[in-house]
Amino acid sequence: MGICIALAGNPNCGKTTMFNDLTGANQYVGNWPGVTVEKKEGKYTRDKDVTITDLPGIYSLSPYSPEEIVARDYLLEGGPDAVINLVDATNLERNLYLTSQILNLGIPVVIALNMMDLVEKNGDKIDVDGLSRELGCPIVPTSALKGRGMEDVVKAAIDAARAEKAPASQMKFDAAVEEALVKIEGVLGDKVSPNAARWYAIKLFEAEDKTIADLKLSQADLDAISAIRTSIEDKLDDDAESIITAERYDAISHVMGKTVKRTRTGLTTSQKIDRVVTNRWLGLPIFIVIMFFVYWLAVSVGGGVVTDWANDGISGDGWLYTGNAAFDEATEEYEDAHSQVVTYVENILGEDEESELPSDASQEVLDALAAEEPEAPEDDADADAVAEYEDAMAEYEEAQAIVADFDEQAQASHAVATMEVEDEDGNVEEQSITFADYQKALEVEEPDPSDGTWGLWIPGLGAIIADAMEAADVAPWLQSLVNDGIVSGVGAVIGFIPQMVILFLLLGILELCGYMSRVAFIMDRIFRKFGLSGKSFIPMLIASGCGVPAVMSTKTIENEMDRRMTIMTTTMIPCGAKMPIIALVFGALASGDSSATWYVAPMFYFLGVIAIILSGIMLKKTKLFAGEATPFVMELPEYHMPTVKSILLSMWERVKGYIIKAGTIIFLSTIVIWFLMNFGDAGEGFGLLDPDAPDYMEHSLMAGLGNLLAWIFAPLGFDNWQATATAVTGLVAKENVVATVGIITQLADYGEADPQLWFGFLQMLGGSTAAVVAFCAFNLLCAPCFAAMGTIRQQQNSPKWFWITIGYLCGFAWCVGTMLYQFVGLATGEVEFNVFTVVAIVIAAAMLFQIFRPMPKREEKQEK
Amino acid sequence: MAEIQGKTLRDVQVGESATVRRLSGEGALKRHIMDMGITKGVGVYVRKVAPLGDPIEVTVRGYELSLRKSEAECILVD
Asked: Residue A861: pLDDT band by 50, 70, 90 thresholds?
């Protein structure tokens, strides 16, 4: 017959480490109160008949927190055959408080006295046998960290379960209280099992609602118990709950007086560390340094170097393994030469005054210069290929003619262009470009990293798959689906993995060594004003790199409401992938004049921070987050060196969750978006669109969807399908926003830093500054990418809260966008006063009301 | 429970100790404070204040506990 053993204990006493050790399960371990929110089960590795249930870490069996209720319900109703109560020997007094309650339950108990080695190192002495006699149950000294004593504990628990021997604790309360408990046991009679009679008597004495409701006692019994309680309350001048708690602690002090010898004086190691780390003056600077270091490693090093590498390697063309310096130099040389050519051509044929782009005539020459000679078909008999080649050749010859014309004109004009060049020291010099210089510059070829001359080139997974499919003659639609849909979508997600690994290793160390609780201690003051927790700082810092690890790191916030609020708001901080959007908008607004509009980029960061603060204040006053302020009575656990194994386990647990999601939700969503963008009716019936055809997007399902949804964005100033489709594709990955603008404006080869794209983007939004600002604000604040949404779904762990989060983000983004477009538009004269201006004013008024009104008084959530 | 006046843990200076007399308030918060070991008659040492002035860190029953000043107000001391 199988035996069920429950593992119970305080948070932070090494319980999860012990569970992992016993069951071999890869379970997450944290030096954080309340990491295990649900109970977890595993089979004992040495005897598969023994099931071990890991209960959440709790301080008490009172039914107030979700963790306490889970643990209590399992112990009372789950029918475990025995309980292993893990007790931190270095913190015996408080740990035994839970023990004193578990001993009342009437279930066989074995105490695992953990961290005994540390106690001995400190020079303290615990009389284990004496303690065992006092508590009336077996005690086994263990070290979960070193895996010592594990087998003995389980063996003792199995023996206890077989013997069905309830603990016989010698711990007694004050005589008057004992007398009252005996009387209540008398009233109860045989309504409860005799082993658990003391537990129920104490709970009824405390007048605990849950127990009273569960037992369904008669009114006469309740009155009798009530009379007993009142007489003791009067006698001891305190309420029953306080009396019992104090009695338990007094009994523990009494037992400890008999069995524990302390020799330690002065400060503990943790207290010494905290004298510096949470020091009144040094605390904040140290915190800032640590956070900067985490950010720097995870976001700059991890996000920059490693993620770029992974992105290039997986979804990109490939990665140059060696010879980077030489390649970079060659690239720079090419770029210099290219700008010389552009400047020279513009000097002769002019540039567009307004956009500072090359004029049409200049552009024609530049395009002609870029034309490449087509390759002759391999097979002369292939009529189609030959025809195609002839067309291309004709085009190429035309381009050559344009170039020749230009050269003739240029040579005749003897024109000399000047270009401003910045040297290595930052000095700006004027460089003159003659016709000879121009011709020389044309000779410089763009370096190709994959041609083998630069170093070891490793082609990207995307390129390999594309080549393989090309070779295997796979249907074009399938090639498109795999390359443009799956590889680029899922690849973008997988590209974050190296960054996540670094981040979660660092966070794991901070958490397991005990610093995370200190973060809460230091930052609590600031964040609780917005209904957030001191621990919300970490997700928000990380969100400036990527929202996915940010949302995952909310796991360290143990309070449910604080955690939900942090998840809802943290993605408002612009992440790395939103940077190109800001750069694009910045360019479109500034038209390259960065000195006049330098404030645009930082402004969007402030927008994110302000959005979080305002959201926190507003949400806190809604019914969703109503209730008492979250208490902050929290243990600051002792610092200890985490083991490499537990850090790796904690990292793997989190990264694994992310990888699984990338394989499911994100995989499906990228296929849907790909389908919407590439299928449609371009006049030849419904089917796959030809991406080489001009304006192919216009016929796609995405354009149809964009048209359907465009009215939503009318108040924000961009009610066309292009802008709407852009926002929708941004859901796959925010990088797609700029890419889609490129496809729609047919400037896909130009990056977000290119004036061509800025101008195209500005035209897409009707040339309105207000609409550009509103567009950017909406895309930064609305629902994040699928990867982040999937993470939100996982962390909120409730469909209702997931939709509340997404709904709030989109709604809030829409409101902010509307206000920005209407108010900025009015100020610049781009918008006439209209019905949506009124809407914007109403939204602004409603927000101000919600922000400044006092905290609404609400009915107590749980009426007694 | 009617007692609202009197010295609370909030009034204890950093570096000083006090003995808990009783807890005001009721419900989950009070129970949680008691569960953490702050019960009648126990000695509490106020170790420090957080860098931003709140919360505070106390040593009780041999371990470190942090609580906000508003919560310390519920703890009446001698």
From this structure: very low
pLDDT in tens, chain B (78 residues): 444 568 999 999 999 999 999 998 878 889 999 999 999 999 999 999 999 998 999 999 999 999 999 999 999 998
CA A230 to chain centre: 52
Say if CB A496 and CB A550 are below 8 A apart: no
Chains A and B form CB pairs within 8 A to the count of 134
Q: Write out chain A residues lying below 8 Å of B63, CB-based.
A: 91, 93-94, 635-636, 638
Chain A contact probe: residue of B30, B52, B59, B67 with most A CBs at under 10 A: B52
Comparing CB atoms, the residue among B22, B52, B62 nearest residue A526 is B52
**What is the model's pTM?**
0.76
**What does the H/E/C string look like for A588-639?**
HHHCCCCCCCCCHHHHHHHHHHHHHHHHHHHHHCCHHHCCCCCCCCEECCCC
pLDDT at B5: 63
* DSSP structural state of residue A430: E
How far apart are the C-alpha atoms of A752 and A488, rounded to whole Å?
19
The CA distance from A416 to A121, in Å, is 83
Contact A725, A680 (CB under 8 A): no
Q: For residue A434, is pLDDT > 80?
A: yes
β A50-54/A40-43 pair status = antiparallel
Chain A residue whose CA is closest to B72: A633
Alpha-carbon distance of A737 to A579, in angstroms, equals 11
Place of tokens 């309420």: A239
pLDDT in tens, A226-280: 999 999 999 998 999 999 999 999 999 999 999 998 876 778 888 899 999 999 8
* Amino acid at the residue A257: G
CATH topology of domain B9-77: SH3 type barrels. (2.30.30)
CB B12 within 8 A of CB B46: yes
The Cα of B11 is separated from the nearest Cα of chain A by a number of Å equal to: 17
Mean pLDDT of A765-776: 86
Spans of all domains in chain A: 3-163, 175-265, 324-455, 497-625+662-852
Quote the tokens at residue A520.
């809460």
DSSP string, A136-154: TS-EEE-BTTTTBSHHHHH
Taking alpha carbons only, the member of A46, A92, A459, A361 closest to residue A249 is A92
What pLDDT shows up at residue A423?
67
Angle, to 10 degrees, between the axis of helix A240-259 and the axis of helix A92-102? 120
- pLDDT tens digits for range A60-71: 998 877 778 888
ipTM of the shown complex: 0.94
Question: Which one of 3.30.70.100, 3.30.365.10, 3.40.50.300, 2.60.40.10 gives the CATH number of domain A3-163?
Answer: 3.40.50.300
For A175-265, give the CATH class. Answer: mainly alpha
Place of tokens 């004193």: A100
Report how far residue A198's alpha carbon sits from residue A491's, in angstroms, rounded to the nearest whole number.
60
CA distance A711 to A497: 38
Give residue A315's pLDDT. 58
CA distance A140 to A163: 17
Please report, for chain B, the start and end positions of each structural domain, with discontinuous segments joined by +.
9-77
Using one digit for the tens of pLDDT, what is the confidence trace for B15-37? Answer: 999 999 999 887 888 999 999 99
What distance lies between CA A727 and its chain's CA centroid?
21
**pLDDT bucket at A33, cuts 50 / 70 / 90:** very low
At A311, is the pLDDT very low, low, confident or very high (cuts 50, 70, 90)? low
CB nearest to A91's CB, from B32, B49, B63: B63
Contact B52 A522 (CB under 8 A): yes
What Rg value do the Cα atoms of chain A yield, rounded? 35
**Helix, strand, coil fractions of chain A, as percent rounded to 5:** 65, 10, 30
Taking an 8 Å cut-off on Cβ atoms, the answer to whether B55 and A632 are in contact is yes
